[in-house]
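Run Transmembrane 9 superfamily member through structure prediction, thanks.
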Amino acid sequence: MPSLSDIEWATRWDGYLRVLEPSIHWFSLINSSIIVLFLTGMVSMIVLRALHKDISRYNAVDAQEDVQEDYGWKLVHGDVFRPPNKPMTLAVLTGSGVQLIAMTGVVLVFAVFGFLSPSNRGALGTMMILFFMIFSCISGYTSARLYKMNGGEMWKTNMILSATLLPGTLIGGLIGLNFFLIYSHSSGAVPFGTMMAIAGLWLIISLPLSIVGSYIGLRKPKLEQPVRTNQIPRQIPEQPTYLRSIPSILMGGILPFGAIFIELYFIMNSIWFHKIYYGIGFLFLVFGVLILTCSQVAILMCYFHMCGEDYHWSWRAFLTAGATGFYAYAYSFLYYFTKLDINSFTSTVLYFGYSSIISVLLAIMTGKKSLFLF
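Sure, done. The structure for Transmembrane 9 superfamily member is below.
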C-alpha cells in the first residue's frame, strides 16, 4: 500500500468522494422517473381530451348559450380566480419558496461542475448563505406581484414580511439551537460573533435587495385575469372524503416524498453519522424530478377539486405539494427511533430542531413548485 507521500494531492480525496452503493441511487431515480411519466400521461390526457375542447368553446362568441349544460369544473370558471384567504401569507410564502428554489438550483449546478468539493471545507455552506441573500430580490418581487394580483393593498406590510419572515425565522431558530450547543460545551457551537455577522450580512445585503425587488414588483402593472370573476361567490357542494382538505393534501404529498425518499436517507446519514455525501449528480436529477412531480400532483388535485365545484385551489395547490415537508418530518421520527442512539435531552432537542427547520424549508420550497401552474 503506498504511503501518503506517494499519492498525488489532486487524487487524495478520490477514496472519500466515490458514491457508495450507486445501484440504490439509480433504482431511486428510475422509480421517480416512472412516477413522473405516469403523472405526465395523466395530465396530458386531461389537458388534451377534457380541457382543450371546452376552453375553445368558452372563448367562442356564443359560449353563453351552453352554460346550462355545463357541469363539474366548468361551473366554477367565474370563481376560479377569486382571491384566496390570507393572500398576504400566501404571497410571502410563495416568494420565499422562489428564493429557496433559486438558491438550491444554483448551488447544485455549482456542485455538479465541481466548484464545491468537500476538500474545500465550508464552501457549500458559504455558497448557500450567499445565494440565499442574493436571491432575496426574487422573493420580494414574486411576493409583491402575487399579492398585487390578488388585490392586496397593504404593500408596506408585504415588503416587510417578504424581507423578514423566512430569514428572521431561520436566524431565530438557529440561534436558539446554538444555545443548546453552547450549554453542552460542544465544539460545533457557532461563536456569537459569527451569528451576529450573518445577521449583519442579512441586514446589509438581503434586506435591501428584498425591498428593491418588492418595489419593482409593485410598480409593475397588475396581472389581469383571463376570466371575469363573479361578484357573488358560488356555493360549494359537500365534498367526498378524499377531496376534503386534510385527506387530499396528505394524498398529494406522498408522491413527491416518494421521489426523494432514498436521497433523503443518504443525506440524513451524512448529517448525523458524519459521512461525506457526494452523490451530487443524483441529487441534481432528483431535484428536477421533484419539481416535475410537485407541479403535476398539484395540477391533478386542483383539477379533481374543480370537478367537485370547489374553486379554492390556491392554498390547496401550495399545501398539496408542501405536504412533502410533513412527510419528511414524520420520517425524521422513524429515523430517530430506528437508526440513531441518542440518550441526552440536548441531542434530542437539536435533532428534532434541525429536522423541523429542514422540513419547513422543504415544505415552502415544494409548495412554491406546485404554484408554477400560475
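Residues 22-40+71-81+239-374 form one domain.
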